[in-house]
Each structure stands twice: as structure tokens, then as C-alpha cells.
Amino acid sequence: MKIGEESNITCQVLDVAPIRYLSVKLYKRDEQLGNRSFTHDSTRFPVNENVPFPVTPTRADNGAEYTCVAELQLGPGGPKPNPEKRSPPLKIPVVCASSAVCDVNIDPSRVVVRFGDPVTVNCSTTREDVLGAGWESSVSPVNKMNSKIAVWNVSSLTVWDAEPKCFINCMNEPRQCAEKLDLVIYKYPENISLIAPEFMKIGVESTITCQVLDVAPARYLSVKLYKGDEQLVNRSFTHDSTHFPVNESIPFPVTPTRTDNGAEYTCVAELQLGPGGLKPNPEKRSPPLKIPVVYKPSLLSAAEENVEVREGGSIVLNCSADGNPAPAYEWKYPKADNVQEITKDGVSTVNITRASSSNERVYECHAKNTYGVAMKNITLTVKGGTPWVMIILLIIGVVLAIAIIAGRIIFSRRRKSGSVL
Length: 421
What we know:
- Belongs to the immunoglobulin superfamily. ICAM family.
- It is found in: Membrane.
- Keywords: Cell adhesion, Disulfide bond, Glycoprotein, Immunoglobulin domain, Membrane, Repeat, Signal, Transmembrane, Transmembrane helix.
- There is one protein chain.
- By secondary structure, the protein is mainly beta.
- The protein has one helix at 388-420; strands spanning 7-16, 22-28, 31-37, 47-55, 65-72, 84-86, 90-91, 105-107, 110-114, 119-124, 130-136, 142-145, 149-154, 165-170, 176-180, 182-186, 191-195, 200-201, 206-215, 221-227, 230-236, 246-254, 264-271, 283-285, 289-290, 293-299, 304-310, 315-324, 328-332, 339-344, 347-352, 361-369, 372-383.
- The strands form 9 sheets. Strands 2, 3, 5, 6 and 7 form a 5-stranded antiparallel sheet that branches. A 5-stranded mixed sheet has the order 18-26-28-31-30, with no helix packed on it. Strands 20, 21, 23, 24 and 25 form a 5-stranded antiparallel sheet that branches.
- A hairpin with a 2-residue loop joins strand 30 and strand 31 (347-352).
């Protein structure tokens, strides 16, 4: 690669699926240079991806090792940490853009400056046949005659396309050497917000959109969607070479489960500015957003039950279900004076007092909301009690038995008395 000239380093990832969860990162030694994700791609089959990353090397990058990392961010239920695979490290020589005899030294070689802040950069050479040095730029250009040093100094950098380039004019060939400054002008997002549907359906894919306004440069922007403290997905824009502030709307597909009802979602916009940038990377968060998840009712107990009660006794039949919106309950059975329905705190009951054979049947409970219905059947059996006739006969039998025994005792005593006389 040539100093000051943009080159592409391409990460080639083969036979990976699903691509929507793929994140590809380029590292220079331990420093992450770029991150590319594919959340908008719904392909389910294994694919091959060539991911280009633009790199503008400096003199210090000569001999640096570059590595590509492919990571599957599978989200909830996936393995932790996320599975990843690394390429073998690659060393790429860096040469002077003009020729080996050109000697242009820029210090610092890479500058990261916030829009509107001051910036100062030195340029010098060790050549002796110098006619002059200077800076070509759309703001504060410099031209120093008979000088080996030129300083580019801007009190407030408010131009996005400055593109400063240091030049050295010499008497001998090459008569002019030039090197472009690796300059990054950045701006924090003006605003970041979430755009989401009023509700999501369980098991149905919905889209939550992160809207990032007035941020630059896009190529260093990384946008992440969080559910609570869990990162769901990450999107980057390393292929975007726009220098000016842009607005980005990033859609993230989400397929909610029942447990996601009431979860808080947050969008985080991060500027990964690389060498010379702020540490930690500057970021801005959206206000958290709760999105209801709707689903049809689901019974909290068995769908079929068999219960018994003795004749004349009491029993309570219970029916409860979980759903969003909360379900309404309807019981189906022949109405009776000794049966009462009560619904409280999400539980519906049928209370039966003085049970009789007329209450013996199947009681159907229907839990309903807008998205479906769950049905429970409770079969009630009334066991026969001890009939009153039997009780009366039993009492009569006991009385008769006592009378017979008493009569025999009396008769026996009288006989004994007569025999004595």
C-alpha cells in the first residue's frame, strides 16, 4: 500500500449462515479498524461474502499485521461468547506514494478532530535541496519558501472537505513530493431515537428502526440495538465514504417471545474513530422504549380435569390463562341457582354449593382475547350421599334392636321371679 492513499483490504468469508447474524471485523494488530454487519439480509442458506474495508496507511503502518474476524451474533439462546473465526494474520508493506527518495514527514500522521475544534499539524523533510514546503487545503493553505517545515494550523475547523496535503518542492528529481494527511473530522449524532410498532406479535418478525441524525463520518459509525443489557445486533457502515454529516435509519428485525413483553429496547450509536480518536469511543443512546408483545391466551393448568364432590357438598372450579391483552372468561354449562361465577385477579371460578346430581356435567371455560382462545374442560362427578330413608331405617332398626334386647331382659327377670314364687 502507498502512504496517504486509500487501499482496500477485503475479508473473504466462505459458506456461512445465516448472514443476518454475521459481523465481520478488520483488525490492525489489536486495534479494530472496521465492522460490517448484514442485518438487512434475510438469506437463510450458507453464502460467501467479500467484505471490503478501506484503509489509508501511514508510514508507521509498514509491517503491521492485519486480521479478519467473522463472528456470528446469534442473540438469545445462542452460544456465549459468540462463535468466531479468524483469518491468518497478513503483513502488508507500505511504500512512499511518489518514490523512494521522497521524504515527507507528517506529525501527527493521523488526526481525529471534532468539527469546529482547532487543529495543528507539522510537515517536514530531511532533504537538503528544498525550495519550499506547504499545505494544499480548502482551508488555511500554507506556502513557505526556502523552508523544510510547514505548519497547518486552523483555529476552528468548520470545513468537511479540507483534505490537506503536505508538499515539498525540491531542486532535483523528484521536484515535488506530497503526502495527504489522514484526517478524520467527526460530529456526534444530533439525535438518536427508536421507531417501533405500537406492539409486536409473539413469533412474528417485526422491525425496530434506529434513527441517527446528523452524524459524521458514517464509515466509522456503529449502531447497536439492545434489549435490556443484551446486545441483539450491530450494524456498521465501513463502505460509506461520505465525509459530510448524514442521517441514518437502520432497521433491525426482531422476533419476540412471550418473555419479551415489557422489555426495554435501546439504540446506541458509537463512533469507532480508531487511532488518535477518543477512548472509550464516543457514543449516544436513545431513550429506552418498551414495546408490548401481544399473544393469545395460554392455560396455566391442564386443559382437561376430572373432579368429584359428594352430594350436598361444595366445590370450586378454577380456570386461569396468560395472555396479552388479558383474557376475558366465559363459562358454558346449564345455569343453576346453586352455581355462582366469580372472576378476580386474572382467575375465573365457578362456585357450587349443595351439589346435586343435576350439577354433574362438563363445565367449559373459554379464555379469550383479540388474538385467540384457550378452552378448558372440567368434568364434575357428584357422588351419592347417605339417603335420609336409609338413615331413618337405620335409626328404627337400632331402636327395635334396643327394644327387643330390653324386652328379653325384662321377660327373663319375670320368669326368674315366678320360679321363685
